[in-house]
Amino acid sequence: MKTYTGGCHCGKFKYEAEIDLKSAIECNCSRCHKLGLVLSFIPPEQFKLIEGSETELTDYQFNTMKIHHLFCPDCGVESFARGANKEGNPLYCINVRCLDDVLLSDLTITPVNGKDY
Ligand SMILES: [Zn+2]
Asked: Model confidence over 14-59: pLDDT tens digits?
């Protein structure tokens, strides 16, 4: 577990997140596939928005409408999303590609079959 900083492309939104990147996944659902998303899921207490506010982000939902895909209205980058696990506990979905100083080639990324659920 380590504290990372991350955010969107233009810098309007920045956050700190405590993550164990061993949990990074690559999802093949229709949206993640188009965006090339690599994600890590953390509870809200491990996430802190330090620049911008969540209400300023554009919220996009599809399919089961369980995840709020939040992206910057200026640069269009979804640096994180908000959702819930199967038990209904809130989760933040961190876009690992938006973390500072993380090389994807250093990670072992687990494929997840999101397109079938
Ligand atoms: Zn931005």
From this structure: 999 999 999 999 999 899 999 999 999 999 999 999 999 999 999 9
Burial environment of residue 38 by CB neighbours within 10 A (0 to 12, 13 to 18, 19 or more): buried
Ligand 1 centroid from CA 81, angstroms: 14
Q: 116 C-alpha to center of ligand 1: Å?
A: 31
Query: Residue 38 is part of a domain; what is its CATH number?
Result: 2.170.150.70
Q: 86 CA distance to ligand 1 centroid (A)? A: 30
Nearest Cα to Cα of residue 80 among 1, 27, 9, 7: 7
Q: How far is the CA of 72 from the centre of ligand 1 (A)?
A: 5
Q: Is 100 exposed, middle or buried (0-12, 13-18, 19+ CB in 10 A)?
A: exposed
- No. of helices (H) and no. of strands (E), the chain: 1, 10
Domain count along the chain: 1
Q: In terms of pTM, does the model score above 0.85?
A: yes
